[in-house]
Amino acid sequence: MPTKYAAELVLLAAIWGASFLFMRSTSAEFGPIMLITLRTGIAALVLLPWLILQQHTGLMFRHWRTITIIGLTNTAIPFCLFSYSTLYLGAGYASVLNATAPMFGALIGFYWLKDKLLPVAIVGLVIGFVGVLVLSLSRQHTEIATNWLPIMAALAATFLYGLAACYSKRYLQGVNALAIATGSQLVATLTLAPISLFFWPATMPGIESWWQVIILGVVCTAFAYILYFRLIANIGSAKAITVAYLVPVFGVLWGMIFLAEQLSLGMWIGAGLVLFGVALTSGLVNRYQTKPAV
User: Fold this and answer.
1) What burial letters (b/e) apply to 205-241, b meaning 16+ CB within 10 Å?
2) CA gap 78, 191 in Å, rounded
3) Spatial contact of 259 and 91, defined as CB atoms under 8 Å apart
4) What is the Cα–Cα distance from 108 to 172, expressed in whole angstroms?
5) Domain span holding position 98
6) Maximum mean pLDDT: which of 111-125, 210-224, 228-242
7) What CA–CA distance (Å, rounded) separates 154 from 94?
8) What is the mean pLDDT of the chain?
9) Phi/psi of residue 8, nearest 5 degrees
């Protein structure tokens, strides 16, 4: 991979890792639903002009039914679930759980799309979920309600990510990614907006929190999507998706630097098992071990 695109891949991981930092910092003030409504609304306002310039608005409306499903399963619901979970788990912890999405994608693809699941991938699934269990048990010093519920919320979000990926593969193959992304943000905003009116914060958040939400919408969502599409176009989707393995690295790093979060030994072991399991499940390890003959 050329250095230029490798740098863009690292930048994207740093941006998406920072999204957990911003959710952790602002969820308490705005509430999970209101926060995500603002995030997707801002992202939609930024992406829509870009979509118009690319002349893909007709494509978005042509596939509005399937894009609506993606908007709910890949944006509205999982974003809210992660916004809730970061309140209790922290930015770094939640970002590690986010890495389980490829595992759920592989499992759903096996049962629904009849995709092949190699023995090494099955081992990876087992290792990954053992890692999740280790992560969960490492927080047993907290109350059950503040431990298992946020973890299950995060895993439900990653399950939906995996489901959305398989749904896109089946029904949106070949459709412009920017049209899907813009449409999904619009759907999420329109769905959450009326609900968020019942969750308006009692106390108006401070100006710093508003700036963080704007950054979350503009940089961590809209700009990140554009950067991701650029990487897919230049290095292919198989290499671009490896950003999922770098996001937890930055999620943990930003949490430790800016929020003084600390991971216990058990959390580090669990995080390592999750990432290794995901690498096996998605074929990343086998991909780099198996070189074509010259």
Assistant:
1) beeebeebbebbbbbbbbbbbbbbbebeeebeeebbb
2) 13
3) yes
4) 17
5) 3-289
6) 210-224
7) 7
8) 84
9) -65, -35
Q: Using DSSP, state whether 289 is helix, strand or coil.
A: helix
DSSP three-state, residue 128:
helix
- Structurally, the chain folds into a number of domains equal to 1
Over residues 89-95, the mean pLDDT reads 85
Q: Is 193 exposed, middle or buried (0-12, 13-18, 19+ CB in 10 A)?
A: middle
Model pLDDT for residues 32-52, shown as the tens digit of each residue: 999 999 999 999 999 999 899
294 inside domain: no
Instruction: Please give the pLDDT value at position 153.
Output: 94
Closest C-alpha among 244, 293, 226 to residue 48: 226
The verdict on residue 51 lying in a domain is yes
In the numeric block, which tokens belong to residue 111? Answer: 């049962």
Q: What is the residue type of 157? A: A
**Tokens 């412009």, residue located:** 176
Q: What is the pTM of this model?
A: 0.86
**Which pLDDT tens digit goes with each residue over 175-214?**
888 898 899 999 999 999 999 989 888 888 889 999 999 9
For residue 82, count CB atoms less than 10 angstroms from its CB and return exposed for 0-12, middle for 13-18, buried for 19 or more. Answer: buried
187 occurs within a structural domain: yes
Place of tokens 């769905």: 191
pLDDT at 235 over 70: yes
Does residue 39 form part of some domain? Answer: yes
Task: Please give the C-alpha separations between residue 231 and each of 12, 40, 227, in angstroms, as whole numbers.
Answer: 10, 22, 6
SS3 109: helix
Give the confidence band of 146 by pLDDT, cuts at 50, 70, 90: low
Among residues 5, 4, 12, which one has the least CA distance to residue 249?
12
